Amino acid sequence: MGNVIAKDPDFWCSTDDPGPERHNADWMKRVSDSKFLSELSIPGTHDTMTCSYSGVEGLWVWCQSWSLGIQLNMGIRFLDIRCQASNGDMLLNHGGYYLGTLLDTLNGCVNFLQTQPSECIILRIKQENSSLEGLGFRDAMFPFLERFSDHIFFKTSMLTLGEARGKMVILADYDMDGNDHIMRYGCGMSICDNWEPDSKEQKIDGIKDNINSAFSAVRDRKEMYITFTSYTWLADCPRELARSANPIAHDFVRNHIGCLGIFVMDYPGFQIIRDIIDHN
């Protein structure tokens, strides 16, 4: 694949599988069924499937270096999936670059859940680089959700982990009507995704503010907090931005106690993933 990056395992990852001793394939097994998903600390990846890109622009396209299977074994439970509807198919897309198909991604999730039934996988599915308007994208997406209906938990309100085990949970980031029976991305959620900040300091401050809100003892148990550490800055590629942002985020995670919400990263290393999981 050619995606060679810095190899400090605490903060960011190499292309290699760190090995079974560093996997967190069944970490949800130790969490109570009664917990809402919004009460968990969940590691996630931004533009999850960019690892599959093999073109010459890779350094600016890649946001991850691990395959989907490695990410899931490492403990990632929130996937950021960008889709383009095309001639009856759903293609994965990042800034116009082809990354594979939604069908292969959903099959990969199902295969993992069949071996790890204690787990659930949250997928934010976003319409990207698609010309469909109104409910057109929703109509194009419907056959794929229907095909995997046995493996998706359909509910518009927040789920408990007990309900979600063994299932995919869809957060729809596209236009829907009131009869889709899946959660709408952003509804009942506090999302920090300032991907184009005025300064690096502004980005870090936003991360800290959203996590501090997630820690709050008075917050609504059913409100989901999603914090993206990823962003763009001048000509820097995602790898270099993760090199500086991930250690800061890791330090913040390690020095706080309580619920982090969903923590979405570029190039997460095994230690930051494990430290997020340890907040549960």
From TrEMBL:
An example Gene Ontology molecular-function term: phosphoric diester hydrolase activity
SMART domains per record: PLCXc
SUPFAM superfamilies per UniProt: PLC-like phosphodiesterases
BP GO annotations: lipid metabolic process
Domain of life: Eukaryota
Domain Phosphatidylinositol-specific phospholipase C X, chain residue ranges per copy: 31-173
PANTHER family tied to this protein: PTHR13593, SI:DKEY-266F7.9
Protein name, entry field: Phosphatidylinositol-specific phospholipase C X domain-containing protein
Organism: Dreissena polymorpha
Lineage of producing organism: Eukaryota, Metazoa, Spiralia, Lophotrochozoa, Mollusca
